[in-house]
Amino acid sequence: MRPPARGAARPLSGAALAAALLLSAAAPAQAEPLQGPRAADGKGQELPGMPSALDPEAEQVVCTPASREKAEKQDWSRQRLDLDRLHGHGTGAGVTVALVDTGVAAGAAGLDGRVTAQGSAGDDCVGHGTFLAGLIAGSGEDGLTGVAPEAEILALRGTDRRGQADAALVAQAVRAATAAGAEVIAVGAALPERDAELSRAVAAALDAGAVVVAAATPDPPSRSDADEIPSRTYYPAGEPGVLSVADMLPSGARPDGVLRTGGVDLAAPGAGVVSGGPRGDGHYLGAGASVAAAYAAGAAAVVRAERPDDSPGEVVHRLTATAYPADIPQLDPYAAATTVLDGSGSVSVGADRASGPVTVRDTSDADRTTDRATLLALLGTAGVLGVLWVAFALPRARARGWRPARAGKD
């Protein structure tokens, strides 16, 4: 009985080989979607979180310590914004971005020599402002490039030393930015009440030609009670002419637990984002609408450098008109810097818009479905090949009396 067993094994092993080859070709397509989300949301990197404020009730102010960890790979946000491609067209050179937040450490990694701090803004105890400055203008020498790596940063304090925002401080900082001639003003604070002095400061900044970008909402509360807080407009994002920016996940959706608001103009990456801090050369993970606003401010700096004669309204329109279409348009800096708009301000037909790498829809479910369908198709193909192999080899083996092919030739 050995010869029949050997003869039957030959066609079966051929079918198995064909199936193995087909399945090995399918394996990368099946594995890739599983790797993406882990890298995209920052969970694959062990980094400390960057707070937006310190405990206001603590007896002593303890500044955010230096991180001892460094990111091992580029986070999803920079890949999503395709910064390498953007920097082939513009880097924000010659543009000053005023950052109104917790301050910016002038000697922070990737920012040395391009930060001017007014008053106490050079002391960033929280670290949040320095984190945002890296997203706007990081040079990349620490491995993390900002959207506008050749822009200048004007650091202004819009909070107390613990990071608690104050309308009077924000208004004062906006006026200082206007007086200094900043082309872009980024405000990380989001206040729940409108303030008359802040409204006047923002209006004066816009009249002076500055693009004002602000976080659409504060960072979510530490408790999970965001759903209990009613939807409202936050300021200065709610002021006329200000670009209001919200945070988004890799899927394009807003994160769970964010505060609700309306009138958002633009969405940008705002979860699992990596940047540096004011002390040491380590990295942190940050999140929130302020992070998204920093990215949008960097994009505004690149546009201003490339189109210095555009008004603030024209820059804001360009950022929103070239954004990836969604319920909330999603920032595409490369398109903003390169797309040709027609006379009405609309994207011209035939513009190289579709070639952009930004894909904001969450396609992971569809990818898995496609992978399963592909796998089933390949298994079916392997099965058909196996049947054809058996159909071909079985008659030949029977004609040889189940002797091996070599023995039939003796």
Summarize the structure.
The chain is an alpha/beta fold and 410 residues long. It is 39% helix and 10% strand. Helix 1 (2-40) runs antiparallel to helix 10 (364-399).
What would you say this structure looks like, in words?
With 410 residues, this protein is an alpha/beta fold. It folds into 2 domains: 2-40 and 363-408; 76-338, Peptidase S8/S53 domain (Rossmann fold, 3-Layer(aba) Sandwich), CATH 3.40.50.200. Helix content is 39%, strand content 10%. The protein has 11 helices and 9 strands. It has helices at residues 2-40, 76-81, 83-86, 128-137, 167-179, 196-207, 289-306, 312-321, 333-338, 364-399, 405-408; strands at residues 96-101, 115-117, 152-157, 184-187, 211-215, 243-248, 266-269, 273-276, 283-286. It has a 7-stranded parallel β-sheet, sandwiched between helices. β4, α6 (196-207) and β5 form a beta-alpha-beta unit. α1 (2-40) runs antiparallel to α10, α4 (128-137) packs parallel to α7 and α5 (167-179) packs parallel to α6 (196-207). The chain is globular, with a radius of gyration of 28 Å. 45% of the residues are buried. One of its GO terms (molecular function) is serine-type endopeptidase activity. It comes from Streptomyces minutiscleroticus. One of its GO terms (biological process) is proteolysis. It holds the Pfam family Peptidase_S8.
